[in-house]
Design brief:
With about 425 residues, the chain is mainly alpha-helical. The chain has helices at about 15-20, 30-35, 75-80, 105-120, 135-145, 155-170, 170-190, 195-215, 225-240, 255-275, 275-280, 285-290, 300-320, 325-345, 350-355, 360-370, 370-385, 395-410, 420-425, 430-435; strands at about 50, 65, 100-105. It has 3 domains: about 10-50, CD2-Gal4 (Irregular); about 135-285, no CATH class; about 300-435, no CATH class. About 55% of the residues lie in helices and about 5% in strands. α14 (about 325-345) packs parallel to α17. InterPro entries: Fun_TF, Sterol_Uptake_Regulator, Zn2-C6_fun-type_DNA-bd_sf, Zn2Cys6_DnaBD.
């Protein structure tokens, strides 16, 4: 006796097949039986779900069921004509454990709908390059978080988050700059240490490409590229502050020289920013250029410290005719102004760059020559950086600078940095320095 072929029963056939008590292949919108008979084909519901033991690959648990009838020419024809139908899985029974939900009935309808999308395109259109998901990740990082590193307020948020990426679409050096600083941000803050090296490598690669393109345009800043040049110049400063530096406990001059290079770069970038400033003030970049000053009178201890610095400067000038009294006076006033901003609530990266930009050119030479009074000024710059410690690119600079200056100065000069050391490391700073 011949064995009867097992089959799965279904209660989802069309109403006409149920009335005739014949097997329905459940094709949508018209099953094969009704199509051959030119009968009206209706289903009791718009869709049906079939519980199957095997999940079709790639559909995340919901798979389209295979039509029951093998003789449906219309269904097979649609499947052959429509390339998108190959992306729809089919469910089959198996003995494997577990249950997944599959879409049954309506293969033709689904295929026809997807086929419409395929027919909307031009078969001769140029192929789209593959997506660079790494770069898309970095752009998302910029839009979600990194742009705030350069922003000061909601008004400037809009410029850094929206306008600058739009500008980067026309200027590859700016796009590479955005991706570089975003990758660096992730390298410095990602919770998974194993990924930080990869992010850092991507940051360096993008920055190298950005700088190569940026240098070519330095001699030709005009209205067409002014926005991009300005934005990139600002991004470079953040990148330079944020790039990780390996502390050298044996040589404190390493930190001083590192910071000196950052200050030189910041001052040089200012020349790029300054030239198109008038034009940019009339554009959508105007909110970035307008800095809302928030200065307040210094607290008593800070004001006393500034007075002490001025007095020490005058004493040094009286004792040594080669002492650069005027240069240090301007530098101390610069410190005082920036401290008044900090106490007034300014916590933007502007503070770090503005102090460097306003420094007398001669001060940079004195710092390069490792003059003690210049190092005293640098320790007070560390207090400004302390106010920015919540920003990832400045986090450890203040501590590194304080420790380095203290290690270099002798007992004659150390009293002049006492207030700065307390502000950065606390009242017990000597213990912390000695146990580093």
């Amino acid at each position: 006796m011949a064995l009867r072929r097992p089959h799965r029963k279904s209660r989802h056939g069309c109403l006409e097949c149920k009335r005739r008590r014949v097997k329905c292949d459940e094709a949508r919108p018209v099953c094969s039986n009704c199509a051959k008979r030119h009968a009206e084909c209706e289903y009791g519901s718009s869709s049906s779900l079939l519980w199957a033991n095997e999940e079709a690959p790639g559909l995340g648990g919901l798979a389209q069921a295979r039509p029951r009838a093998s003789g449906s020419d219309s269904v097979q024809g649609d499947r052959d004509r429509d390339p998108l139908s190959s992306g729809l899985g089919s469910a089959s029974a198996s003995g494997s454990p577990g249950v997944s939900v599959s879409m049954s009935a309506g293969v033709s309808a689904g295929t026809d709908s997807l086929g419409l999308l395929g027919r909307l395109g031009d078969a001769t259109s140029t192929p789209v390059p593959a997506l660079n998901l790494h770069d898309l990740e970095l752009m998302m990082q910029w839009c979600n978080a990194t742009h705030r590193t350069l922003s000061r307020s909601e008004r400037t948020d809009l410029v850094w988050r929206n306008c600058i990426p739009e500008e980067a679409l026309s200027h590859p050096f700016l796009m590479h700059g955005i991706l570089a600083v975003s990758a660096l941000h992730l390298a410095r803050t990602d919770c998974d240490p194993s990924r930080r090296a990869a992010y850092l490598n991507r940051a360096v690669a993008h920055q190298n490409q950005a700088l190569a393109l940026f240098r070519e345009l330095l001699g030709d800043v005009n209205e067409l590229n002014a926005k991009a040049m300005f934005a990139f110049a600002s991004i470079v400063v953040v990148y330079t502050f944020g790039f990780p530096h390996t502390p050298d406990a044996q040589d404190p001059w390493t930190c001083i020289d590192d910071l000196y290079q950052v200050l030189v770069l910041t001052r040089g970038i200012q020349q790029v920013i300054r030239s198109p400033a008038d034009y940019l003030s009339q554009t959508s970049f105007a909110p970035i250029l307008h800095v809302e000053e928030s200065s307040v009178p210094l607290p008593e201890d800070a004001a006393a410290n500034i007075n002490q610095l001025h007095e020490a400067n005058e004493v040094c000038g009286a004792r040594d005719t080669t002492h650069e009294t005027e240069v240090y006076t301007a530098t101390i006033d610069n410190i005082s102004e920036m401290l008044s901003w900090v106490y007034g609530g300014m916590t933007a990266s502007t503070i770090a760059g503005r102090w460097a930009i306003k420094l007398p050119a001669r001060f940079m030479e004195l710092l390069r020559e490792h003059e003690p009074m210049a190092l005293v000024m640098l320790a007070h710059y560390g207090v400004l950086l302390q106010s920015l410690r919540h920003r990832w690119c400045f986090d450890e600079w203040c501590v590194r600078v304080a420790r380095a200056v203290w290690a270099i100065l002798d007992d004659q000069w150390r009293p002049l940095v006492h207030w700065a050391m307390c502000a950065i490391l606390g009242e017990t700073y000597i213990e912390r320095v000695m146990t580093q």
